[in-house]
Specification:
The structure is a homodimer of 297-residue chains.
Chain A: H1 8-15, H2 19-29, E1 35-36, E2 42-43, H3 46-60, H4 65-70, H5 73-81, H6 96-103, H7 107-121, H8 123-143, H9 149-167, E3 174-181, H10 190-201, E4 204-208, H11 215-224, E5 229-233, H12 240-253, E6 259-263, E7 276-278, H13 284-295
Parallel strand pairs in A: 3-4, 3-5, 5-6, 6-7
Antiparallel strand pairs in A: 1-2
Helix pairs in contact in A: 3-5, 7-8, 7-9, 8-9, 8-10, 9-10, 11-12
Chain B binds a DNA duplex (30 and 30 nucleotides) through helix 2.
DNA sequence: TTCATCGTTTTGTCCTAGACAAATATGAGA
DNA sequence: TCTCATATTTGTCTAGGACAAAACGATGAA
């Protein structure tokens, strides 16, 4: 068991920073400056990846690379703790009960706790008031290094399983018909499932393609199934600018009669292209459905 | 809605071919040779993307780029129809009933058909004799261009939902305890779910991490949950050589007391490192569990 | 024959470094 | 204070060279 070293492909995969960008940062700012193997190829350490993740997170939060690379590593940590918008309390504290179960590896305990909460709140409130914010908190906890990625995986699997189970009792639904999926670079499927539950509770008919559908196939699928709406989910970690570009493209390829909706924790910062609607917060999905029904009465 | 043109990022996203590779093919083989915008940046047409996808499928099937770029576009289509290995009857024909439902976009029809078959066969036989071979056939049909990727997505989602639902009635189980997941480059989760069902039917306790868990996290999760076995799934499209390397690494990182099992349609061609077991075919999973129980009686 | 081994060819990924568009910050003027 | 124009920062594209890894194919042994 030796100290693991990672090549640039692995770093791209684990940080979401493109190879081009990693090389450019090295050229421009001098960090990271990974060791090289005997062929001159970059070999990154786990610590470098850790710091890159931190920097990425801070950039997502609105800081600029120039400042971040200039200041010393220690002070970066503290920046993360600052709330994004003033008066916004840390989301993590409220959920420490569930997070502790995760940290202890108590899977059945976690499952029981979720199940119990679902019973208490009912499906809609459970999704809106527990599952959605808890998922954000779990993501946040991972970002801050409080839990490991496999613990996030366990959480995700348990919740998916629970939701699928609950959804099975909701039968075939009416209009509008929605096509749900994510773009190819967005692999988080949990938000999609949450959206599916909410839309089904509003009586819509949902066709889910799962994650990572190529844009041209979304267009084709929408036409084939004659859907009224294409709904996409974006997680917090998805780059907002990328999202805007892809939405614009997709909007261009599809007839205007098919609406394009987006949702998920990562949608707030996305600048919406014309003809794209956002469904956020408690009333988001219900509102979108209601609007659609009024317009198509 | 104008004639769509795609930049290299969009092509990478929709074909799965890296920018580097797209540029290299252009340099080396002269295809694709996209138009350029006023700044010299590549602009691909939908037709070029279509052909690139075809070429990608053929390469995945075992053809070599050199040959493919040499032969004319028309003859490429016909290559897809050929069976991968001689004397192997096309698996697709046997499953045309389901495939037709997919092609017609009849989702509820598909769901009913699967449900009905599950009722008729029982869970174990359904997984072994329907779900597993049908999934291979669906993959094959996509490779041959008979269905589009979004239709494969629909199939996958319906089957997952059905299986999760069925699994919910199987409660907490006994030993051994298995950790199920895939390596970071393997995103196919259907095989994992099939394995989970089979192992649970044998009375094992399954902890699923979903897909794409970093190797070091697999190690950590295995230790944390005190599992007896780590089970990984590989799809047919996974490069066997890569699989062998990762298995060897993983075997090195983990204590010998934890067994390492692999399964899935893509395992046949993998050269097994020492200390790794393969569970293939009808009796595979049952056999592995039984062996383990004998050794740990 | 069949199988393994070793050199050769093909193929994909990494490298450097220049250019420039898009995003953001800054400052001038209303 | 706000708006617009200009400057700076930042990310992504470009080209072509290099070379590792994979696949092929020929040669020799069982």
């Amino acid at each position: 068991m030796h100290t693991p070293r990672f090549n640039i492909t692995a770093v791209e995969r684990d940080t979401g920073l493109s190879k081009d960008l990693l090389r450019m940062w090295e050229r421009r700012y001098g960090f990271p400056s990974p060791q090289r193997d005997q062929h001159g190829e970059r070999l990154y350490t786990a610590a470098e990846i850790e710091r890159l993740r931190l920097i990425k997170r801070l950039i997502d939060k609105g800081f600029r690379p120039g400042k971040l690379f200039a200041s010393d590593p220690e002070s970066l940590e503290s920046l993360l703790a600052e709330p994004t918008t003033p008066q916004m309390p840390s989301v993590i504290e409220d959920w420490n009960g569930y997070l502790d179960l995760l940290r202890q590896g108590d899977i059945s305990g976690l499952r029981d706790a979720l199940q119990q909460q679902l019973m208490r709140q009912g499906l809609q409130s459970f999704v809106l008031d527990t599952a959605a914010p808890l998922s954000v908190a779990v993501g946040e906890a991972w970002m801050q290094g409080q839990i490991r990625i496999h613990e996030e995986h366990v959480y995700s699997e348990q919740l998916k399983s629970l939701l699928r189970q609950s959804m099975a009792v909701l039968g075939e639904r009416g209009r509008p018909t929605l096509l749900l999926t994510t773009v190819p670079d967005e692999e988080h499927g949990l938000g999609l499932l949450l959206a599916e539950v909410l839309f089904m509770l509003e009586g819509a008919r949902c066709i889910s393609l799962g994650t990572r559908t190529p844009l041209l196939d979304i267009v084709d699928a929408a036409a084939r199934h004659g859907v009224d709406v294409v709904a996409l989910s974006f997680s917090t970690s998805f780059p907002p600018r990328q999202a805007a570009i892809q939405l614009k493209e997709l909007r261009d390829y599809m007839p205007a009669s098919i609406e394009l909706w987006i949702g998920g924790a990562g949608t707030e910062r996305i600048v919406l292209p014309p003809g794209v609607k956002r469904g956020m917060g408690r009333q988001g999905p219900a509102q979108l459905i209601e609007e659609w029904r009024i317009n198509h009465a």
